Amino acid sequence: MAKSLLAVFGATGNQGNSTANSVLDDPELSKRYAVRAVSRDVNNPKMQHLKSKGAELAQADLDDPSSLPAALKGVEYLFFITTTQYQGNSREVETRQAEAICEAAVKEGVKYIIFSSMSHPYKISNGKLKNVEHFDDKAEIEEYIRSLPVKSAFFAPGSFMQNFTSHLKPRPSPANDGTYVMASIIKPDTKLPLTDITDTGKWTGAILAEPEKYEGKFFAAAEGLYTLSEACEIMSKVLGKTIKYQQLPDEVFKGFLPPGLKEQLYEMWVLSRDYGYYGPDMKELVGWAKEQAKGHLTTLEEWLVREKYSVE
């Protein structure tokens, strides 16, 4: 039986690389799918690693529509993600990227698109949150893809565990007593869906294993729901240090955010605190998606150990 050709755009990024590796490493999926790994730089070591596993490599750039038809020629299944623009204009750039690849995909006869989507803060908050553009635009792209004459499914990752190495990293306590503090505006009992983003392929692989079953489905992809207080307890256990969560007043928290992204990042946290990262049905959505995952999902404790996590 001839294999279906799967094109994975962004094959050097966390989500694309995880998807490509999951298919190549899976005994069943590797029999059903040939992988075309697509990136702006085919010489990237991650691309060469995929090639060593049997992937075909192709060069393309979502910002260069002329490069897309060749990368999509003969493709039946497509995974892609648009790139959040942290310097601004995210909606404009991501929408342009998505329309370019989708138009080319439809022309080339792609049958099924898996898109890395997100929740829709503007809708969830009934229009109160107007600035979480890097979430809203992906939700709007999802709506656009659903209108196309192709089958589709949507992977929407929770808050990355990798964020604990950047803006959620605990800092030494101002008391200078050897303890550490993690700070944000969400309440101590606010549940946050956490995911190890390198687990992406466990969900996209599940979709590719049963594409008809999951057509039109939205995967609120997280290993579980954690409060930041619980995350601090797990970190304390793993590191043998005292780490506590502190809820900051909104204006104090805003003062720590980069000027160009202040409202965007602030409202992203308001979404989780006041409405739920995926909205009011978050618990059910995350529970369903977790049951569909193909393979064991990395827990926060396992992630901390694997990454040799440190607060030093």
Task: Name a few traits of the molecule.
alpha/beta; NmrA-like; 40% helix; NAD(P)-binding protein; 312 residues; globular; 3-stranded mixed beta sheet
Write the layout of secondary structure elements.
Elements: E1 4-9, H1 14-25, H2 29-32, E2 33-39, H3 45-52, E3 56-59, H4 68-72, E4 77-80, H5 90-108, E5 112-116, H6 121-124, H7 133-146, E6 151-157, E7 159-160, E8 171-172, E9 180-184, E10 192-195, H8 200-209, E11 218-221, E12 224-226, H9 228-239, E13 243-247, H10 250-254, H11 262-275, H12 282-292, H13 300-306
Parallel strand pairs: 1-2, 1-4, 2-3, 4-5, 5-6, 6-11, 7-10, 9-13
Antiparallel strand pairs: 8-9, 10-12
Domain NmrA-like: 3-304
InterPro entries: NAD(P)-bd_dom_sf, NmrA-like, NmrA-like_oxidored
Family: Belongs to the NmrA-type oxidoreductase family.
Q: Can you give a write-up of this model?
A:
The chain has 312 residues and is α/β, with parallel strands linked by helices. The protein is built from 13 helices and 13 strands. It has a 7-stranded parallel β-sheet, sandwiched between helices. The chain has a 3-stranded mixed β-sheet with strand order 7-10-12. Strands 8-9-13 form a 3-stranded mixed β-sheet, with helices on one face. 40% of the residues lie in helices and 19% in strands. This is NAD(P)-binding protein. Pfam families: NmrA. It comes from Setomelanomma holmii. Keywords: NADP.
**If helices are DSSP runs of H or I spanning 4 or more residues, what is the number of helices?**
13
Q: How far is the first residue's CA from the last residue's CA?
A: 54 Å
Shape: globular
Q: What's the mean pLDDT score?
A: 96
Enumerate the spans where pLDDT stays under 50 for 5 or more consecutive residues. Answer: none
- What would you call the structural class? alpha/beta
Strand order of the largest sheet: 3-2-1-4-5-6-11
Please compute the radius of gyration using only Cα atoms: 20 Å
Q: How many strand units? A: 13
Helix content: 40-55%
Share of residues in strands: 15-25%
**Main β-sheet description:** 7 strands, parallel
Order of helices and strands: EHHEHEHEHEHHEEEEEHEEHEHHHH
